[in-house]
Amino acid sequence: MAKLTIPAEEYMYPGHAACPGCGAALAMRLLLKGLGPRTIVSMPACCWTVIATPYPTTALATGLLDHPIEATGASISGLRAAADAMGLKDLEIVGFAGDGGTADIGLQSLSGMLERRTDAIYVMYDNEAYMNTGIQRSGSTPAGAWTTTTPVAGASHGKPEPKKDVMGIVRAHHPVYAATLNPSFPEDFLRKVERARGLHGPRFLHVFSPCPPGWKYSSERTIELGRLATDSGIFPLYEVGEDGVLSITRRGGALKPVAEYFRAQGRFAHLTEAEIAAIQAAARANWERLLRLATPPPA
Asked: For the whole model, what pTM was predicted?
């Protein structure tokens, strides 16, 4: 019998309000398995406040704090200061925010938390739009994607701007640790969470979080889509330590065509072959850039 590598303990209760196939629910479940019960999760207005906190219930077996959408970085900075003042050094303080509350509305708060060197983990679960309020585009929405504010009609072919490079912004602040994670690769996910837990200082985890209703795909395909996103170069998996060394944590050989990833999602159904080819070229260029930055270099 193969050895189990994922902890059996559960810190997320059944009966939560997530949609079937929700990548953000998978992300939280794995995150808490890696962090354990001595954790306080602070989250802004986002899908997860609906998933976890319909009054008077909670879906988490850890401490939980809700706060305004723009304030995740400030909230976890305050929690860390309070825990330290009370001598609670063993508490892990975690911010868990969506891409809208991180890449857009909360970017100033994230930057402040990183610049202050707050001893906490900031998690951005990235479902690539404001899903909780009606699937509006965010800075993290990829180029060409349909959302309710980037419609596909007439001359409009989805979002015209590229996805914001949040990891690049974070890396410019020189955190103790930053990494991309994907629940479709749970062993890699848990290893990165455990590495982050063992460090002190500002840490950032960028988590890929497929969303069936927002991305227009069948909910049983979440794990498959996550794997395609990484293996096509759309969402590479890597980590960066305080020394700035970048290490790629999944090298799957030749990149798969991004068309395989797009075909499974209705939000990209309108793209032409030329548009897909342009996105393919951008994904390949980004992957090659990461390969050049990676240490040690590929054999």
From this structure: 0.95
